UniProtKB/TrEMBL annotation:
Domain Ig-like: 353-440, 445-514, 535-628, 794-882, 1004-1092
GO MF annotation: an example: myosin binding
Record SUPFAM superfamilies: Fibronectin type III (SSF49265), Immunoglobulin (SSF48726)
A Pfam family assignment: fn3
Origin species: Saimiri boliviensis boliviensis
Superkingdom assignment: Eukaryota
Family recorded in the similarity comment: Belongs to the immunoglobulin superfamily. MyBP family.
UniProt keyword terms in alphabetical order: Actin-binding, Cell adhesion, Disulfide bond, Immunoglobulin domain, Muscle protein, Phosphoprotein, Repeat, Thick filament
Annotated protein name in UniProt: Myosin binding protein C1
């Protein structure tokens, strides 16, 4: 049996003090008398051992510190005493009158341990505020105190630059009848956080975590002997080395054991201050009495010890001996012996034997998701074993994946669902050794049982992407590199090893590259989704028969909405001939959501059936559209006057050959006197018939009539005038017709003039004959007095203003009327410069009395000599007209500076190559100073081709330019001198300075940023910003870091540095972060904004 270690062998025996109550014995010993403090025997502990309980000097300093005027504290916490298992509360109060906010309060044990991290089962921190008194109250409550809670505590309060602190002591006494089990090393070690004894007040949280290593067997070390013989400066080093955390508490206990007793009259030799024995060992207590007749009693924690197999008493002369067999942890306590009225006491420390690791941990390899068990065996059942991962203690808890299972001597660390993060070095530590192993967690080889497949689905159908892998693990879905967000329409399904992405009611924006990536694996499963929609042609805006009516001469832009995904290709055709896209008069234009047929200037020949054909990979669509071009009707042919009276006539006509594509609604009739140019409307209500009876005409005056056709579009051009007619009363028949004579071949007849002859007079007679019994008559080729009209030779009456050259400017209209005479109606022939006239450029209109030459827009090519020939039977008449079409001239060909002297410059130039078909009447000369280049006129209407410019400013440099001039005005452009004329000062030569070109290059910079925008779903939204830079930066728009390229929903503009992104009819899907990026050779700049699309409730 090992002998207990003696702490003081030379201690002088002192008389035993009178017996006291057991509950107050420790308290009495912790307060030594003044004479005990003054007497220090040679073998006593040095003063440094009194750290556990402050010496007189330290007590005095503490009292002085606490007695100073407090800066913040109104009430400081006071030291106290508590029994083991009881509660105690310390209170500190701070006045809040001068504080703008709550002060910061910290509670400490010893020098450094912050108790805020120890709050739990045995420690609670509270704080309250009373509004009436404006007082902060801070409480620290220790619940079910343990003996190792004793020690020095400190409370600190801070507020801005103010600081206040207060120290106080806590003493913990053993309860009556308890037998505390104290282990010198382990009693002062901390307990793990989150366990049953969380919140223990120890110093282990401040100890540096040491790497867990396998330690060899070390010999037994008596810490008490080490502390006794060590220098006080090495106390903390020894405490750290041997795992003693509550150094202050240990020193206080040593001080109580080492206290020098007064010389005793009953004891010749007292008990040693402390004894140490291993668990299961035997200890021997010996005292020597001064008087062997004195009765001796032994006590443990105030209770008398009776002889038993455990406690054996012996008497050897004056020695009184007590043996304690089979020491257990419950024997760790305070013992004292009484002899008469005196007593002496000691402390017994029972040390547990070290726990050894009998079966080491083994290196383990596992796969992710598996259950891992690391097992070791120790030398005793239910031993305390701590587990570490890479040197950090593993603390199991309700939410932890780590569990510790103990089966007798077996200790097992269980890891549920291992991950790669669990790969580490694990170790189990006991008081007598440790064991380590390495755990390697790898991923199981992943097999793709069913890969994703590319899909092509119709718009509105369901998209289902399905894959199956060999492991039941989670994964992530991405679309075009961005995470897929679940919604009411998009669902992500994970059942075992099967992963699905289901999209109901597919939209065009669902198209893209989808990738499924299993977590923790570098494998990806890609698939492409292509959303298609058969093309559709929307003709809702047209008539039932798909007819489009357009007025001739106007522009038709027929926009037909279309749909389809991908956007279909539209082809327009007419009569099996395709209409191409381009710049023709009839062309097609294609857009993502519509196709447009454009007819710039509609003509009547454009009427017909047009076909539109849509085609994409989902199918085809066809439609036919009838285009009807309506125009003014053609003028009717010249009307015929079938019957005349004294003031009336009857006229009829044929409908126009072309009604303009719209039914003829009626006609307007006009008349005029033959010699007049004023036409008069005869009806203001449309005439529905093709016959009309003009009235109220003057008898004997020649008239002409013409017709206008009217449809829904308008009034046609007038018809050609009718043949002139004269309203006359009908003459009476001749009288007294008789046969004068008859021969074989002739008959001679006589008659008298009619009784009534009209205002037109009597021009002659017409003779008719027929065979007897026949009803048809024939005219005779002979008459009595003027049976036939004689031919009238033609005569051309050239107007006076056409007898000289007729001059007009380019673009003006030419309308010349040339009257003539001749009967019967003459034949007219026009020629230009001896060649026939092109009737497509020049319009010729002929009547019985005049001819008209008409040019709508004169051109210089219309200039020339026009010859008119009028022919009546064998008679001819000719006349000529000279027409000159003039325009503004071109500029002079060259302008040169011939000489410069003094303040003068001599200029010369050559006449223009193009005189505008008219003689050059003069020139205009202008000058400009090189600095300002502002032009000033020097000479006007100058006729020569050289000139001298005078009175120029000395020292200036001039340029000159010359305009040509004819009867139409100045030329549009001028010819400028290539060189400049320098008016130099005499005797001085001015040298022009050389300037370096300024570098205008600049990196891109946004002058107006993008701003966060809210948009309404279905209404176009725009994002605007402005940027500058040289060279001009390239602009790129991005949505959620993805560039927007060829997306029909977006339109991008850039004008004068203002960048605009238009989002057409956005939906909530279009919300996100938009970025505008500007890049040139000097740098890159980006700016972002957020767009939120709100849906308005219907």
């Amino acid at each position: 049996m090992p002998e207990p270690t003696k702490k003081e062998e030379n201690e002088v025996p002192t008389p035993a003090p009178p017996p006291e109550e057991p509950s107050k014995e420790k308290e009495a010993r912790t307060t030594p008398a003044k004479d005990e403090e003054e007497v220090s025997p040679p073998s006593a502990l040095p003063p440094e051992w009194s750290l556990g309980e402050s010496p007189a000097g330290e007590e005095q300093d503490k009292q002085n510190a606490n007695s100073q005027v407090s800066v913040l504290f109104v009430e400081k916490p006071q030291g106290g005493t508590v029994k083991v298992g009881e509660n105690i509360t310390f209170i500190a109060k701070v006045k809040a009158e001068d504080l703008l906010r709550k002060p910061t309060v910290k509670w400490f044990k010893g020098k450094w341990m912050d108790l805020a991290s120890k709050a739990g089962k045995h420690l609670q921190l509270k704080e309250t505020f009373e509004r009436q008194t404006r007082m902060y109250t801070f409480e620290m409550q220790i619940i079910k105190a343990k003996e190792n809670y004793a020690g020095n505590y400190r409370c600190e309060v801070t507020y801005k630059d103010k600081f206040d602190t207060c120290s106080f002591d806590l003493e913990v006494h053993e309860s009556t009848g308890t037998t505390p089990s104290i282990d010198i090393r382990s009693a002062f070690k901390r307990s793990g956080e989150g366990q049953e004894d969380a919140g223990e007040l120890d110093f282990s949280g401040l100890l540096k975590r040491r790497e867990v290593k396998q330690q060899e067997e070390e010999p037994e070390v008596d810490v008490w002997e080490l502390l006794k013989n060590a220098n006080p400066s090495e106390y903390e080093k020894i405490a750290f080395q041997y795992g003693i955390t509550d150094l202050r508490g240990m020193l206080k206990r040593l001080k109580r054991m080492r206290r020098v007793e007064k010389k005793s009259a009953a004891f010749a030799k007292i008990l040693d201050p402390a004894y140490q024995v291993d668990k299961g060992g035997r200890v021997r207590f010996v005292v020597e009495l001064a008087d062997p007749k004195l009765e001796v009693k032994w006590f443990k924690n105030g209770q008398e010890i009776r002889p038993s197999t455990k406690y054996i008493f012996e008497h050897k002369g004056c020695q009184r001996i007590m043996f304690i067999n089979n020491c257990q942890m419950t024997d760790d306590s305070e013992y004292y012996v009484t002899a008469g009225d005196e007593k002496c006491s000691t402390e017994l420390f029972v040390r547990e034997p070290p726990i050894m690791v009998t079966k080491q941990l083994e290196d383990t390899t596992a796969y992710c998701g598996e259950r891992v068990e690391l097992e070791c065996e120790v030398s005793e059942d239910d031993a305390n074993v701590k587990w570490f991962k890479n040197g950090e203690e593993i603390i199991p808890g309700p939410k932890s994946r780590y569990r510790i299972r103990v089966e007798g001597k077996k200790h097992i660390l269980v890891i549920e669902g291992a991950t790669k993060a669990d790969s580490a070095e694990y170790s189990a530590m006991t008081t007598g050794g440790q064991s380590s192993c390495k755990l390697s967690v790898d991923l199981k080889p992943l097999k793709i049982l069913t890969p994703l497949t590319d899909q092509t689905v119709n718009l509105g159908k369901e998209i289902c992407l399905k894959c199956e892998i060999s492991e039941n693990i989670t994964g992530k879905w991405t679309k075009n590199g961005l995470p897929v967000q679940e919604s009411d329409r998009l669902k992500v399904v994970h059942k075992g090893r099967i992963h699905k992405l289901v999209i109901a009611n597919a939209l065009t924006e669902d198209e893209g590259d989808y990738v499924f990536a299993p977590d923790a694996y570098s494998v990806t499963l890609p698939a492409k989704v292509h959303v298609i929609d058969p093309p559709k042609i929307i003709l809702d805006g047209l008539d039932a028969d798909n007819t489009v009516t357009v007025i001739a001469g106007s522009k038709l832009r027929l926009e037909i909405p279309i749909s389809g995904e991908p956007p279909p290709k539209a082809i327009w055709s007419r009569a099996d001939k395709a209409i191409m896209e381009g710049s023709g008069r009839i062309r097609a234009e294609s857009y993502p959501d519509s196709s447009t047929l454009v007819i710039d200037v509609a003509e009547r020949d454009d009427s017909g059936v047009y076909h539109i054909n849509l085609k994409n990979e989902a199918g085809e669509a066809h439609a036919s559209i009838k285009i009807k071009v309506v125009d003014l009707p053609d003028p009717p042919v010249a009307p015929n006057v079938t019957e005349v009276g004294d003031d009336w006539c009857i006229m009829n006509w044929e409908p126009p050959a072309y009604d303009g594509g719209s039914p003829i609604l009626g006609y307007f009739i006009e008349r005029k006197k033959k010699q007049s140019s004023r036409w008069m409307r005869l009806n203001f209500d449309l005439c529905k018939e093709t016959t009309f009876e003009p009235k109220k005409m003057i008898e004997g005056v020649a008239y002409e009539v013409r017709i206008f056709a009217v449809n829904a579009i308008g009034i046609s051009k007038p018809s050609m005038p009718s043949k002139p007619f004269v309203p006359l009363a009908v003459t009476s028949p001749p009288t007294l017709l008789a046969v004068d004579s008859v021969t074989d071949t002739t008959v001679t007849m006589k008659w008298r003039p009619p009784d009534q002859i009209g205002a037109a007079g009597l021009d002659g007679y017409v003779l008719e004959y027929c065979f007897e019994g026949s009803t048809s008559a024939k005219q005779s080729d002979e008459n009595g007095e003027a049976a036939f009209d004689l031919p009238e030779p033609p005569k051309i009456r050239i107007p006076r203003h056409l007898k000289q050259t007729y001059i007009r400017r380019v673009g003006e209209a030419v309308n010349l009327v040339i009257p003539f005479q001749g009967k019967p109606r003459p034949e007219l022939t026009w020629k230009k410069d001896g060649a026939d006239i092109d009737k497509n450029q020049i319009n010729i209109r002929n009547s019985e009395t005049d001819t008209i030459i008409f040019i709508r827009k004169a051109e210089r090519s219309h200039s020339g000599k026009y010859d008119l020939q009028v022919k009546v039977e064998k008679f001819t008449e000719s006349a000529s007209i000279d027409i000159q079409i003039v325009d503004r001239p071109g500029p002079p060909q060259t302008v040169k500076i011939e000489d410069v002297w003094g303040e003068n410059v001599a200029l010369s130039w050559t006449p223009p190559k193009d005189d505008g078909n008219a003689a050059i009447t003069g020139y205009t000369i202008q000058k400009a100073d090189k600095k300002s280049m502002e032009w000033f006129t020097v000479i006007e209407h100058y006729h020569r081709t050289n000139a001298t410019i005078t009175e120029l400013v000395i020292g200036n440099e001039y340029y000159f330019r010359v305009f040509s001039e004819n009867m139409c005005g100045l030329s549009e452009d001028a010819t400028m001198t290539k060189e400049s004329a320098v008016i130099a000062k005499d005797g001085k030569i001015y040298k022009n300075p050389v300037y370096e070109d300024f570098d205008f290059s600049e990196a891109p910079m946004f002058t107006q940023p993008l701003v966060n925008t809210y948009a309404i779903a279905g209404y176009n939204a725009t994002l605007n910003c402005s940027v500058r830079g040289n060279p001009k930066p390239k602009i790129t728009w991005m949505k959620n870091k993805v560039a927007i390229v060829d997306d029909p929903r977006y339109r991008m503009f850039s004008n004068q540095g203002v960048c605009t992104l238009e989002i057409r009819k956005p939906s909530p899907y279009d919300g996100g972060t938009y970025c505008c990026k500007a890049v040139n050779d000097l740098g890159t700049v980006e700016i972002e904004c957020k767009l939120e699309v709100k849906v308005v409730a219907q």
